[in-house]
Amino acid sequence: MSKQPTSTEDDPALEADVFARNCTSRPVLQNVASRWGVLALVALREGPYRFSALRRRVDGVSERMLSQTLQTLERDGMVHREVLEAIPPRVEYTLTELGAQVAERLESLIVILETNMDTVREAQANYHRSASPRT
């Protein structure tokens, strides 16, 4: 008897299913949908960024977290890192084709949220007014 593959890593012919526990697409989704992943990808839609400029654009991210986020997104094929020949050497980050597709959809989500913050704040206020102790 042969054992059934449990993920697309075991059998690349299997269709990705992010809802499946062992699907290799799940950690990629987690990387993209992380707080810093979303913001870095959408910021890079504006064009190439050097690390320090991207860190200023993504206000509040630590140097370490941004570095880890960019490495993860580069590994997943979303971000391209290019070392430019200059003195001192410069590093520039851009989106790959896949990264651009993902960032476009993330930006749409951000726009929906930003344009509906009055509705969100009202819902939050209503929730807190009517909330009884919950278990």
UniProtKB/TrEMBL annotation:
This is HxlR family transcriptional regulator. The lineage of its organism: Bacteria, Bacillati, Actinomycetota, Actinomycetes, Mycobacteriales. It comes from Nocardia rhizosphaerihabitans. Signal peptide: none annotated. It comes from the Bacteria. InterPro entries: HTH_HxlR, WH-like_DNA-bd_sf, WH_DNA-bd_sf. Keywords: DNA-binding, Transcription, Transcription regulation. Pfam families: HxlR. Residues 23-121 form the HTH hxlR-type domain.
